[in-house]
Structure formats: C-alpha cells, structure tokens
Amino acid sequence: MKRVFVTGVSGLLGTNLCLDLLHKGYRVIGLVRNKNSYKGKYHKNLELIEGQLFDDFSSVLKSVDVVVHIAATTSQSLINYSNYWKINCHATIQLYNTAIVYQVKRFIFISTANTLGFGSLKKLGTEQHKINPLFKQSHYAKSKLEAENYLLKNKHKIDTVIINPTFMLGAYDTKPSSGKIILMGWNKRLIFYPPGGKNFVHVKDVSFGIIKAIEKGGSGEKYLLANTNLSYREFFTTLNRLTNQNPMMIQIPKQLLITMGYFGNLLRKLKINTSLSLTNTKILCIENYFSNNKSIKQLDMSYQPIEKAITDAVDYFQTQK
To answer: Where would one find coiled-coil regions in this protein (predicted)?
Structure first.
C-alpha cells in the first residue's frame, strides 16, 4: 500500500485528493495548519499532522513513497514578490530536497496553468507554450514558474511530475477560493462580468489526474489538467441556467477595468494590500484558453461536464449556508 504525503490537505484540491486517494487504497499523511480546518471524511488510513511548510519533515518523508505538494500562497493582494517566492518557491525547494535525501520515489508539484502560454479558441495553449509576458508580471505565476524550473533542473535526482490545473470548481471549497466566482453570480439580480474568458475544470478531474500522474506520469513532464473554455458571459449564463435564475447581465467595459487596474497600482504604491492591479484587470480581458490533449493521451484522462463542477460547488455552498 503506497503512502502519500499531501500538503495543503484542507483546501479545495487537497481535500478532494485526500478522499480520492483513500478510496483508491492509499495511505495518506496530510499536512494542515489546524486539524479543525480539514472538512473531509476521516478514515483509518488517514493521518493528519499540524505544521508549517518550513517544518522539518524528515520523520515523515523517510516512510512515504510519494509527495504531492499542493500548499501555496494564492492570494492576489500581496504587494511584494518575496511573499510569494518564500512559500511557492523556497518552501517547495526545501521540501523537494528533503524528499531527495530520504529517497522518496516520486514528487508531484501542483503548479498552475498560468505558467504556460494561454491561447485562443482557434489555437489553444499547451504544455509546449512558454509563459505569456502578461503572466510574468503576476507574482503568483512567476513564483510557481521559478519552482517548476528548479524541479525540472533536478529531475534526475527524483521522479518529478508537474501538474498545471486550470480554474477548479467543485465541493469542499471551504474558504472559498476559486468558488468565489460562483458566489459572485449566484442569487444575484445583477451580474457584472469582464470581457475575457478562461478554462474551467472539475476539481475531481484534477484529483483523478494527480492519481494517474502518481501511477503513470512521465518524470520531467508537465500535464495541463483542463476542460472547458468559456467566456465569462458563457460561464455566468451556464450558472444561471443550472440555478434557475434570470439576472440582468452587464459586461464591464475593458477600458473601465484598465482604469481600475491603474488605481489598484496606485494603492499598491501606497503599500495598501489589494487584489486590484493592472496585471489582474488585464488578465480579466483576455481569452485564457488551454488544451487537455496531452493529459487525455498520456494519462488516459476523461473529463466531466463543467455543469457537474458548477452544480457540485453550488450544492456544497448550500449545505454550508
């Protein structure tokens, strides 16, 4: 029975992955800051340990076969790159090198699709496309890419697989994180939406993709776990249909978003933490679309309809009130 160490086990992806690994017969050691933050089901093969990413995990890693590193700083409001680099890159490198020392068989790093070059509906982004200059200005994407580059440079020391998921939706979004987009449009009489679009994927599909990467992923490979490319208007239209609502929908003009971005940059210069920035508002205006062909061919992936992801997320939020 394989033993897997999972960081960030109380988050959206971490909780779903933990449950799916247990269902598949794996033993799971999950890292959490506080055990009470884990909202998944408990199991005899699950062990939760409290700690921080910079703790010494020698005693844990000497007895596991696989590390799945999910924990990261995803906030868009931090001003300094160092705040992202410390967690998303430096802590990853420390954990990776400890795994090498204790001869862990495989290290799975959960990154983001935004370290890869996005595309349009006519030419989708793939694992072969380099990061777009716009996302080089994103502290989050930049820190993840720096970690990716270090891991791939040292892949000869340990089997290394990088997972690049797109925008995940589903149950157990306890913060909430990406599920905020659903709360922005659910039970609203008026929905304002940006002019761009992105790729959406069920968090369960990302979880299943990670398990497939544990079992058959190629060392040194990157895998985009992506599904449906939708404009924001199409996304909210789908949400409206699934939740039987009919709000007024208004597209935010691109120029207004850009102006708001400049205002956000001004706030940041004044040392005010805000998710508003020119980079973030520009991202809302682009078609941030990706292909999942590689994961289908090499990991034998199949993907659920995005309607299922939206419905699962809404159902979860309803149970949590």
So the answer is: none
For the stretch 46-60, pLDDT in tens is 999 999 999 999 999
Half-sphere exposure for 161 (CA within 13 Å, toward CB):
25
Q: In this predicted model, what pLDDT tens digit does every residue of 216-262 receive, in sequence order?
A: 999 999 999 999 999 999 999 999 999 999 999 999 999 999 999 99
Tell whether 259 is covered by a domain. no
Residue 155 neighbours by CB distance under 10 Å: 15
Tell me how far apart the alpha carbons of residues 126 and 91 are, in angstroms, rounded to a whole number: 27
Q: In this structure, is residue 260 part of a structural domain?
A: no
pLDDT over threshold 90, residue 40: no
Q: H-helix or E-strand containing 148?
A: helix 139-153
Q: CA-to-CA distance for 51 and 56, rounded, in angstroms?
A: 9
Task: Say how many domains are in the chain.
Answer: 1
Sign of CA dihedral 176, 178, 180, 185: negative
Range of the domain at 196: 3-251+265-320
* Per-residue pLDDT at 31 exceeds 80: yes
- CATH number, domain of 214, equals 3.40.50.720
Query: Helix 306-320 and helix 232-242: axis angle, to 10°?
Result: 60
pTM over 0.85: yes
In a domain, 223, yes or no: yes
User: Is 258 part of a structural domain of the chain?
Assistant: no
